[in-house]
TrEMBL record:
Pathway: Pyrimidine metabolism; UMP biosynthesis via de novo pathway; UMP from orotate: step 2/2. The active site is at D92 (for ompdecase activity), K94 (for ompdecase activity), D97 (for ompdecase activity). This is Orotidine 5'-phosphate decarboxylase. Substrate binds at D39, K61, S152, Q220, G240, R241. Belongs to the OMP decarboxylase family. One of its GO terms (biological process) is 'de novo' UMP biosynthetic process. PANTHER family: OROTATE PHOSPHORIBOSYLTRANSFERASE, URIDINE 5'-MONOPHOSPHATE SYNTHASE. The lineage of its organism: Eukaryota, Fungi, Dikarya, Basidiomycota, Agaricomycotina. GO terms for molecular function: orotate phosphoribosyltransferase activity; orotidine-5'-phosphate decarboxylase activity. Transmembrane segments: none annotated. It catalyses: orotidine 5'-phosphate + H(+) = UMP + CO2. It comes from the Eukaryota. Keywords: Decarboxylase, Lyase, Pyrimidine biosynthesis.
Length: 276
């Protein structure tokens, strides 16, 4: 049956990729399908938010390059919080170049993403070579890759045949590609032969989730956890401003309350989906 009708626990036991297995295991253990997107520019806020939401999330999503006061000690602090609160780390890097270049961007430079991010993501636009390039770095480190099959923003070009081709690219590299950024499940997409799909288990990570707002002034579009998880069968809800707010000053107590609220909403939506 389609993976979204099975429990996270069951899927954890059967998944072949270590990062996906660890994520599904944590989701079941902590009863959370929430990923918080920590889109702030100051180290102090970044770490305070992660410490506050840590107990409620399975995955912390970062844009490491927006930190203004980045230094390598931030990664050590992030890893300590990841161990303390038990969450994985997803750098939302959206790689989009030829294989050789993305391998360098992933392994090297200022951020050395592969050394600390359990999961990262890539656009499908360069074709299969982008997966080969990232896999050359990530597979030996037991990392997982998410492909962007759809986007949450208004007018996104990743639709139709593009989305289908992204799914085909992923199917050819199931050792490393563990899922999609998407708004729906992808199993029903494209030509499928029973052999290749039998044990296919792609995680669907969905950004564009909010309980209060419907969108922002720059084309973001929000759906509720119930729409995303129960109705559309997605596995992980990614929430940024719905939890961390939109102001410059961070209210850590409020951030924690919102994280708890989204955790409950996401988990209830998952339980409803399984009981259908
Ligand atoms: F791939 C995508 C996408 O399609 N939509 C997104 O919003 C990624 N995102 C990211 O999720 C985006 O870069 C933000 O980091 C986050 C959503 O933040 P929000 O504050 O919940 O809108």
């Amino acid at each position: 049956s389609s993976p979204h009708l099975r429990s996270y626990e069951d899927r954890a036991q059967k998944h072949n990729n270590p990062a996906a297995r660890a994520l599904l295991y944590l989701m079941a253990k902590k009863k959370t399908n929430l990923s918080v997107s920590v889109d702030v520019t100051r180290k102090k806020d970044f770490l305070a938010i992660i410490d506050a939401v840590g107990p409620y999330v399975c995955l912390i999503k970062t844009h490491i390059d927006i930190l203004e006061d980045y230094d390598p000690s931030i990664i050590e602090d992030l890893q300590a919080l990841s161990n303390e609160h038990e969450f994985l780390i997803f750098e939302d890097r959206k790689f989009a170049d030829i294989g050789n270049t993305v391998a360098l961007q992933y392994s090297s430079g200022v951020y050395k993403i592969a050394s600390w991010a359990h999961i990262t993501n890539a656009h499908a636009v360069p074709g299969p070579s982008i997966i080969a390039g990232l896999a050359s770095v990530g597979l030996p480190l037991e990392r997982g890759l998410i492909l962007l099959a759809e986007m949450s923003s208004k007018g996104a070009l990743a639709t139709g045949a593009y989305t289908e081709d992204a799914v085909r690219m992923a199917r050819a590299r199931r050792d490393f590609v563990v899922g999609f950024i998407a708004q729906h499940r992808m199993e029903t997409i494209g030509a499928r032969d029973t052999d290749s799909v039998g044990d296919e288990d792609f995680l669907i990570l969905s950004p564009g989730v909010g309980l209060d707002a419907k969108g922002d002034a720059m084309g973001q579009q929000y759906r509720t956890p119930a729409e995303v998880v129960t109705d559309c069968g997605c596995d992980v809800i990614i929430v940024g401003r719905g939890i961390i707010g939109t102001g410059r000053d961070i209210d850590v107590g409020e951030v924690q309350r919102q994280a708890q609220r989204y955790q409950v909403a996401g988990w209830e939506a998952y339980e409803r989906r399984l009981s259908r």
